[in-house]
Amino acid sequence: LDLRVFDRLTPDERAEAERLLLERLQGGGDSRAAVGLGVLKSPAAVEPLRRAIAQQPGQGAMASAAYAEALWRINRDPQAIEAVATLAADPRVHESSRVDAVVALGGMPSPQAAQAMETLLGSDAAYLVRYHAFKGLLKLHGYSAKEADDLTGALAPHLAGAHVRPEARETVRARLAELLAGRALAAEGSV
User: Fold this and answer.
1) DSSP per residue over 19-85, as a string?
2) Are 106 and 136 in contact (CB under 8 A)?
3) What contacts 62, CB < 8 A, 6 or more positions away?
4) Exposed / middle / buried, residue 47 (Cβ in 10 Å: 0-12, 13-18, 19+)
5) Which of these, 136, 79, 149, lies nearest to 105 by C-alpha position?
6) Of 20, 25, 72, 117, most Cβ neighbours within 10 A?
7) Residues of the chain where predicted confidence (pLDDT) is lower than 70
8) What are the pLDDT digits (tens) for 149-177?
């Protein structure tokens, strides 16, 4: 899905795209339709997305994250963060889907998303979930993607053992506190 195309649509084309994407979303829960509706910031998609999130057990985990991301893009709905945080923390969900959920949280600048990632960082058994939670926290606090990559990569050995070794967990917490000292959450749209 090439999201850049949405920037070039005329008002009539945007209305038609919104209509078609809503039809796809309501007709079968197409996660790509949810992404497009989020980019369009479609108010008409809010209730169908909320319903899709509420039916999450019947949907795939990746689709649920896409629905929540779209809902966040449209109106910064707190239900979106709750849905993605729940998905990220659920050990029954495949690790790759949990990582996708953590990455989604990193694009939702809010205290709730930051708290969810801090919780995952401190307690999750999956290395990649902790890795992306650390990286997402840096991005939420204004670090560029490259800076976050470099800083997270440098701490990877400690992140790998943080769930079983208290000294590694403390190293990670101390480094995060040092990196975030004096930095507020990034402004909306800058993540």
Assistant:
1) HHHHHHHHHH--HHHHHHHHHHT-GGGHHHHHHHHHTGGGS-HHHHHHHHHHHHHHH--HHHHHHHH
2) yes
3) 31, 97, 100
4) exposed
5) 136
6) 117
7) 1, 56-60, 187-191
8) 999 999 998 888 877 788 888 899 899 99
* Residue 181, helix vs strand vs coil: coil
Please name the amino acid found at residue 91.
P
Cα end-to-end span (Å), the chain: 20
Task: Retrieve residue 34's tokens.
Answer: 């949810």
Distance CA 102, CA 49 (A): 19
Q: Tokens 């993540």 appear where?
A: 191
Q: How far apart are CA 84 and CA 6, in angstroms?
A: 25
Give the tokens for residue 115.
Answer: 């708290």
CA 173 to chain centre: 21
Residue 146: strand, helix, or coil: helix
Are 22 and 33 contacting, i.e. CB atoms less than 8 angstroms apart?
A: yes
Tell me how crowded residue 94 is: count the other CB atoms within 10 A of its CB: 12
User: Residue type at 67?
Assistant: Y
